[in-house]
Amino acid sequence: MSQESPVSIDPAEVAAFREAVLSKLTYSVGKDPEHAFDHDWFEAIALAARDRIVDPWMDHTRRIYRGNQKRVYYLSLEFLIGRLLFDSLSNLGLLDVARQALADLDVDLDRIRQLEPDAALGNGGLGRLAACFMESMATLGVAAHGYGIRYEHGLFRQAIVDGWQHEQTETWLDFGNPWEFERAEVTYKIGFGGGVTNLPDDPKGERQHWEPADVVRSIAYDTPVVGWRGRAVNTLRLWRARAESDLHLERFNAGDHVGAVLDEARAESISRVLYPADSTEAGQQLRLRQEYFFVSSSLQDLIRRFMKQNGDLRELPQYVSIQLNDTHPAIAVAELMRLMVDVHGLTWDEAWTATVGTLSYTNHTLLPEALETWSVGLMEHLLPRHMQIIYLINAYHIDALRAKDLHDFELLRAVSLIQEDNGRRVRMGNLAFIGSHSINGVSGLHTDLMRVTVFKHLHQLYPDRINNKTNGITFRRWLYQSNPRLTRMLVDAIGPEVLDEPETRLLQLESFADKPSFRKQFVEQRREAKVHLANLVRERIGVVLDPDALFDVQVKRIHEYKRQLLNLLHTVALYQAMRAEPHIDWVPRVKIFAGKAAASYHSAKLIIKLANDIARTVNNDPTLRGMLKVAFLPNYNVSLAEAIIPAADLSEQISTAGYEASGTSNMKFALNGALTIGTLDGANVEMSEQIGEEHMFIFGMSARQVEARKAAGEFNAQPWLDASPRLNEVLQAIHRGAFSPDDPNRYKGLIDGLIAHDTFFVCADFDDYWDAQRKVAAYWRSPKLWWRSAVLNTARAGWFSSDRTIREYARDIWKALD
């Protein structure tokens, strides 16, 4: 996808970068240009680009220190940063310079970029949001550090074998990581287990001495995060786990070669794999060890930095803001208290005031089961001092409520940090809420529902804490880099200012929606993107797609509430209708799916198999004459998303209303001009307000209607089957094995379960979804209307910039912008 530069390039800049690459190739990679492999060139280019980042990185850091600027620390178990070569070159303004410099060396930069592995440090939207936020914080000049784990393997690589998902090790570090700097001198001791004793010099008994039984070391690795135009560069610091002693030499020399390295292997397992399966007790323990490991490392690190410049931890909220990205880092509440009370000698009250004033918490889910809880037994075994602190926080919390004459047993039980049902467990969501001064949702609907569902009782007690910060995306990645053709169109139409002020400038595009010449260009750039995607699909899975067909796309984590199954039922219904009624002038359609299922999520993996079974049947049926194709693309990641999103005509955002906190792929598709078919769920609500519901295809029950059906226990789908012959025929076909002739019983359990207990109201919304899809087809047949709406989607998507979101965080929560 080589692109010609829309601007003139300084020959001196090109020459300088060319020489920098050759120097890196020779002296850092150790290769002669005549004998260099493509990966050698990639490393040389990345190192040359990194050199251009270091000076502004150091300058920005010096300014922060000189101004004693308030720092923001973003704690997240996931950072789905993707490839960084084009990200860095683009934000530095060097992309066209680099492309020309490499062309002069007969090296195709666009080919070389494909060699960079995706840093698989996240699972999906949560991790991608964190990456967008880090880039926006650098763009806006917020003094920020991201803190996470440097997973050796990250999220698994998804392979599809005979239609089934197979998890394979993701080896993104096999050739090293040219973007990071190892900080071997930045290391902290992280303890687990052991016992707690009173300190004799503390008459109040507030301070305790924790003697861990097991200690590992954390080592820092820093990756610079470049803001737009290189205005500022922040740091993503990721932690790697190492054993306190790397090798028991005596045991090794005695012949116990395996036992000599057991401690090393156990310690390093902490940073080995993202989200180890927690279906076993060992898996649960490893997950908790991961969370505490990165939280403790990060808090020790930021306190060291704070003490170096300030010194009085009671002033921490004045100079530091810590954002907890979901409940994974919620143990930070107890760990920050431990560090301030046990290590630095603050009184309990002083430490609690500083903790609450410093911490803020972002909630990402309304699913109670997704709000982490840990068994008290596991916590007492692994983190005994923290369990003491959590008990104390809970006691003071309940005592304070009773002092306000609140004695309702059920209320106190609901807001307690300890869940007493089915075994005593620590509620990490409640801990994060109690220990933070701000709790935010990530879309208007999600925040409203938080107040009346998962945090209903806590909201009643602390009505000023919950606020909304609707998610956003970075346009630099999801428009300028992913869709350079459309970006050039925008620059030509409304000026280069759109690159720096997209939130406001994009609105000027509205007037172009009624210009036939502009709509024609819009169609052409979309078709080029579809041709590129079609080529990629043919290469990867051997399915031939028609770029003139309607590209209907649903790409996201596979989960029942996201309702890929509803889309598949529609696919089958469309397939059956096309075969039964060949006389109808059907709209050619391509159904594109991608996404990973959690390794232990059987139902989600079965949905992937169903998608592939349907694809095999549909794609090989000659009676369709190519009018319908289905493609499930394996190993969905950031790079694949960058190819899919610019090529999408229709964006599927069809989660059960009230279940999707926000979504961000919906914003990416709309920004690139795809029309949305979706429920009024998550940020779809704000999208319908900003873009206009007339330029989307909204269907299905509202969140209020879903909640009413849940409350009434109306989950049996039989009434919907009785009222819908089409739905009934679809389910019967899948049930009897029409798409699984090798195993006719494969989907009987799935369909029987769906009918008996339709937890996510797939059947209830099916007919409305079918009707909405008919409207899609009718609209597609009116090109003027379709492409006018497509242009308006792009024009009105400016509000969904992550820059807007970060300004709101910085203004309302962090108080970190001047």
UniProtKB/TrEMBL annotation:
Catalysed reactions listed for this entry: [(1->4)-alpha-D-glucosyl](n) + phosphate = [(1->4)-alpha-D-glucosyl](n-1) + alpha-D-glucose 1-phosphate
GO MF, any single term: pyridoxal phosphate binding
The protein's matches in Pfam families, at most eight in alphabetical order, are given as:
Phosphorylase
The prosthetic group or cofactor this protein requires is: pyridoxal 5'-phosphate
The answer to whether keyword Glycosyltransferase applies is: yes
**What InterPro entries does this protein's entry cite?**
Glycg_phsphrylas (IPR011833), Glyco_trans_35 (IPR000811), Pyridoxal_P_attach_site (IPR035090)
Key word Cell division present: no
GO cellular component terms attached to this protein's record: cytoplasm
Question: What GO terms describe the biological role, i.e. biological process, of this protein?
Answer: glycogen catabolic process
Which keywords fit this entry according to its UniProt record?
A: Allosteric enzyme, Carbohydrate metabolism, Glycosyltransferase, Pyridoxal phosphate, Transferase
Q: What is the E.C. number?
A: 2.4.1.1
What top-level class of enzyme does the UniProt entry assign? transferase
Query: What superkingdom heads the lineage?
Result: Bacteria
Record's CDD domains? GT35_Glycogen_Phosphorylase
Which residues are the signal sequence here?
Answer: none
Q: Which residues carry this modification: N6-(pyridoxal phosphate)lysine?
A: 668
- Assigned protein family: Belongs to the glycogen phosphorylase family.
> What does the record give as the function of this protein?
Phosphorylase is an important allosteric enzyme in carbohydrate metabolism. Enzymes from different sources differ in their regulatory mechanisms and in their natural substrates. However, all known phosphorylases share catalytic and structural properties. Allosteric enzyme that catalyzes the rate-limiting step in glycogen catabolism, the phosphorolytic cleavage of glycogen to produce glucose-1-phosphate, and plays a central role in maintaining cellular and organismal glucose homeostasis.
NCBIfam families the record matches: P_ylase
Q: What is this protein called?
A: Alpha-1,4 glucan phosphorylase
Organism, by scientific name, is: Pseudomonas matsuisoli
Q: What is the lineage of its organism?
A: Bacteria, Pseudomonadati, Pseudomonadota, Gammaproteobacteria, Pseudomonadales
